[in-house]
From TrEMBL:
<dbReference type="InterPro" id="IPR004638">
    <property type="entry name" value="EmrB-like"/>
</dbReference>
<feature type="transmembrane region" description="Helical">
    <location>
        <begin position="43"/>
        <end position="63"/>
    </location>
</feature>
<keyword id="KW-0812">Transmembrane</keyword>
<feature type="transmembrane region" description="Helical">
    <location>
        <begin position="198"/>
        <end position="215"/>
    </location>
</feature>
<keyword id="KW-1003">Cell membrane</keyword>
<keyword id="KW-0046">Antibiotic resistance</keyword>
<dbReference type="GO" id="GO:0022857">
    <property type="term" value="F:transmembrane transporter activity"/>
</dbReference>
<dbReference type="InterPro" id="IPR036259">
    <property type="entry name" value="MFS_trans_sf"/>
</dbReference>
<feature type="transmembrane region" description="Helical">
    <location>
        <begin position="133"/>
        <end position="155"/>
    </location>
</feature>
<keyword id="KW-0813">Transport</keyword>
<feature type="transmembrane region" description="Helical">
    <location>
        <begin position="268"/>
        <end position="293"/>
    </location>
</feature>
<feature type="domain" description="Major facilitator superfamily (MFS) profile">
    <location>
        <begin position="9"/>
        <end position="484"/>
    </location>
</feature>
<keyword id="KW-0472">Membrane</keyword>
<feature type="transmembrane region" description="Helical">
    <location>
        <begin position="227"/>
        <end position="247"/>
    </location>
</feature>
<protein>
    <submittedName>
        <fullName>Transmembrane efflux protein</fullName>
    </submittedName>
</protein>
<feature type="transmembrane region" description="Helical">
    <location>
        <begin position="167"/>
        <end position="186"/>
    </location>
</feature>
<feature type="transmembrane region" description="Helical">
    <location>
        <begin position="364"/>
        <end position="389"/>
    </location>
</feature>
Amino acid sequence: MGDKRRWFALAIVMTAAFMDLVDVTIVNIAIPSIQQNAGATESQIQWITAGYALAFAAGLITGGRLGDIHGRKKLFLIGIGGFTIASALCGFAANPEMLVASRILQGGMAALMVPQVLSIVHATFPAHERGKVFGLFGAVVGLGAVSGPLLGALLTEWNLFGLEWRPIFLINLPVGIAGLILGSRFITESKAARAPKLDLVGVALVTLGLLMLLYPLTRGRELDWPVWGYVSMAGSLVVLAVLVAYERRKSARDGSPLVELSLFKVKSFAAGIAVQTVFGVALGIFFLVWTLYMQMGLGWSPLKAGLTGVPFSIAVSTAAGLSVQKLVPRFGRGVLQAGALVLGLGVLLYMWESERYGLGIEPWQMAFPLVVMGAGMGLIVAPLTDAILSEVPREHAGSASGLINTVQQMGNALGLGLVSVVFFGVLDDKLGGLGSGESEGAASAAAQTVVGSAFADAFQNALGWVAVVMGAIFLLMFALPRRTAQHVEGAADEAESAEAVGEARETVAVA
């Protein structure tokens, strides 16, 4: 490929990665508007975000393998085309059920599109240029972190053409169409010399197991926790046990399982996967309840809520760069553990300020705990992938990287499901007596205060659980290696790739 053509191709795949990043960040800020204007229930707003994460997680490894087998360009174009169509279906959804289904489709299409981005980079650019390319991806991630919530806030608040929240999805249409046209012209096709076989049974078992766990979690509270919900959640463990047995057989039969179980014999990898999963749970809980607290509890506009998150995003980006360049080479694992403690401290500070200032809290009062939280998160997200991969054999680096990103998405989906327990459950208890008889005006004013206080209490309860999770992460990190040494080029590239577009995709970009 000529020099100019490959840089055009890079711009196209980076734009697609940016579109995916922004789509994840842009939705959270519009969730209260979707609930109010589309009449979505609490479980439906959980599934608007969790459905995307679950579909993305379930299809991520398979999407990468399909590209290796059938061509990365082909799968990238299918993915970006499908993502664009799904965005249109989201934007024109006639009811919440259609929106949830379209979001699940959108996540599935992202699972086809996103893995091809880095594969195309690897096939297009020589090794000595990839550092520069991944640096550009880091900039794209940072830009998506800041611009997504702000863009979502502006589009929601402007209410363009009376479409309310719908432009947050419709904005993908011109970008996706342009990417489809230009990608077909400038991206060169590539395939893997020896691609692993597909494991569709593994994908089906993972998806079934997670659905059996997540569906009762999100619907159980609304349905007064029926017996079938507990049976389903217990059954999910059986399905996951069947998955392990099947993966062992498939690995022995053809060497291409969905999950390379031998990786879990590596202590640092097993511990790192646990850290990544639990971290995803914490993020899934925090970012949804944070949005609901600011807009529905405090009554802030989407723009005010979006601007409040800017110090957090800046702190994450700054601390992430500092941790990789200066701190980790000197202090090793201690930097990640310090990050867990700092993030937990920021959460506790946020809880204290929320209780102290009550419904009169202002964005500037939130800035300090958010900066502390962002600094803690930045110390974790950038070096974590390298720590997890540091003792993984070179031949399994690709599988390990795919699994890291997959479990984070699964953790995120699980966290979103747990919101019904740690947030909405408290909200129900606090609002149980709302509406007992005063005059209409007094009752209305009293009701607003009660609702706001209930949201604040539920938010503080959710933060308490996030703080506990960060303590657990701190302890799990003792199983990570004290120092991480870069692998040979292949593994190092995989680690840097996962870090640039996979892990940072949901963490830095306000999952």
